[in-house]
Amino acid sequence: MVSVNIHCDEISKSFGATEAVAPFSITLAAGQTTALVGPSGCGKSTLLRMIAGLEVPDEGTILLGTEVPRTVARRGGLAMAFQDPSLLPWRSVRANIALGAELARKPAGDIDALIELVGLNGFAEHRPAELSGGMRQRAAIARSLVSSPDVLLLDEPFGAVDAMTRRRLNADLPPLWRTRGATVVLVTHSVQEAVLLSDRVLVLSPRPARLVADIPIDLSGARDSRLLDTPACLALTRSVFAALEEQA
Amino acid sequence: MTGALRRITLVFLLLGGWEAFARLGPIGTLVSGPGAIATHIVDNAALLGRATIETSVNAAWGFVWGNLAAMVLAAVIMLVPRSERALSALALLVFCVPLIASGPILRVLFGPGQGPQITLAALAVYYTTLLALLVGLRAVSQNWTDLMRVYGRGALSTLVRVRARASLPYLFVGLQISAPAALLGAMIGEFTGAERGLGVLTLRAMRGLDTDGTWTLALIAAMVAMGAYVLTGKLGEWLVGYKPVILLSAPKVSAAKTVWARLAEAAFIAALILTLWQVSMDAFDLNRFFAKRPGDVWMFLVNPQNRDTLLSALFETLSFALPGYLAGLALGAALAAALVLWPPLSRATMPVAVALRAVPIITTAPLLVLAFGRGLVGTMVVVAVMIFFPTFVACHQGLRQTPGQTVELFKSYGAGRWQLLRAAQIPAMLPAFFASARMAVPAALLAVTTVEWLATGKGIGVLMAMTASTSNYSMLWSCVAAVAVVAVAFYTLVATLERAVLRIYASEQVT
């Protein structure tokens, strides 16, 4: 695995008459976690899907390192977790996690260790239907990590889980991708989550998405929910909110 | 225990009633009781056993080939979406040609042997399986396909890893409905000139006015068909667990934008079919004496005398088919509506109707003709019965699709059942009704031509039977082409009507 930066150069995207992303340029540093926040429907998911190669920009280019997204995808360097866990119901938890490596054509490595890391030990042979929503989401995140992707894209991965589980996942999962050195892009509705999980928060305008604020998150210490109450963190959260409110 | 006892008592009561009716009823000479049927079976056990095995084996091979063809076709459509319109049109056209029309042609091409029976069985099954499979292959969440693309995997990988597995429950719905249809196909193949099998015995019993034999054979055919239906159902349940409710009907063709584009597309498909016809005959170097090409048919029909013979037979057939078609549709829809008004009755009858939908009614056509005569009424009844069950089941499903909130809205205003039915449930039923009306077009043509071939001696069915036996192959091919054109024309007519009606009542379904 190589750390790559993500370079968007003047990209734009429209769906029919709806302009989703205005000409937009940004470079995301290799190995960093960047959070995208913005009002609903502002085009942040479209931006993420373009980085994933799922949508092609109408204009402009995206490079992951030196390659276009489809090339990175074909060599298994990309992974994505969706708002919905999207596990295959006929596969066990283990087989669902292994699917990530299978599709990326990479050795699966130590799946049991990964299962333990996401706290699913004892459930490896269970089917998704037998798990709670939070457990399914953890399995989906394990699937996105198993291929050790260069670029990890998270589209509201905690959107559908309850508050308690979300709090725990917020604390447990980021170390997993941080230690692997992946470049992470996270789309989230939660400002606290954005501050807590990332190295940099990008605030986007309502549709078409433009960059409104670029806030580096400089927090020392373990990133868990206790951090949220520290003055430094509160100040950062406030500045993100302020940037969002300016838009409204 | 008491439940089982009650059921056994009921079965004995029914059998007793049947026997009494056969012995004492006014049309008793046309009805064989269980006693007579049992005697017939015992007397002819070896013959019936051999015939049942012969037909079942042919049906099984047809089932295998037809379903394999459906799977390949579905896979091609998924992998090359551009091919869908042409392939769907071709598949529909082949499905629209009544089996009894393709039978003699296949007989001519294959000669004696099992080829035609197996091919007809395959033709009888491929379309339902294709429809069910296409619904299933598309019923996957977009996240799954996105997931595959994020890892750089293409359509083939998605098909193999996600779509194929996700479509299994749908595949089994298709397989279950097609299992009895395979038997139907094999029997029709035997009607058109085989040496062995249930179809041959049925033909012989009917021509010899052997009432007991006719009843016995119809009963055996229906039982084998039901057995195949139940068995594939159980197998599906065991393998995939659940059964999705789907409306098995050709997807509504999203018509091209302009009239000209539509005409151009139709012309392209017509040209494609004529080319395929010509090329396949030439490729196998089939003798022009029996393997007629499009040009031969055209030359034959240029002669007014030939044309008149064909057209008068065709009109005779249509005059029999149309009343039956309309009656079957009306009865199916009306009974479905009536059952919604009385839910307990619906709970009792639906399982029976769902199962009967699968019985190839044609195998019991000889009985209906015995009972209702060889004229208009007999033919109409066969056509109507053939269409009734699928329409009834689909309309019943459609009525139940009425959104719960709408029903509750009506109830909150104290609306009665009748008002609810008229204002909310019948409009909700219309898409299902029209879907079955489209699928009933080929079914009606199959029913009418089969009855003509077997019993009534009228119309284009018997013209095909005669020309097949007198080697008038130009007329035979012309008949088949004419029936295919009529089937497609009526199908298009119903589809046009459907679009017009649904634009008013279910505008969200019209693209």
Summarize the structure.
The complex is a heterodimer of chains A (248) and B (511). In chain A, 34% of the residues lie in helices and 23% in strands.
What does this structure look like?
The complex is a heterodimer of chains A (248) and B (511). Chain A is an alpha/beta fold. Chain A is 34% helix and 23% strand. Chain A has helices at 44-51, 69-74, 93-103, 111-117, 133-145, 163-172, 174-179, 191-197, 231-247; strands at residues 6-15, 18-28, 33-37, 59-64, 78-81, 151-155, 183-187, 200-204, 211-216. A six-stranded mixed β-sheet of chain A has the order 5-6-7-3-8-9, sandwiched between helices. In chain A, strands 2-1-4 form a three-stranded antiparallel β-sheet, with helices on one face. In chain A, helix 8 crosses helix 9. The longest helix of chain A is centred in the C-terminal third of the chain and has 17 residues, at 231-247. The radius of gyration of chain A is 18 Å and the shape is globular. Chain A starts with 5 loop residues before the first strand and ends with a helix. By secondary structure, chain B is mainly alpha-helical. In chain B, helix 14 packs across helix 20. Chain B starts with a helix and ends in a 6-residue tail after the last helix.
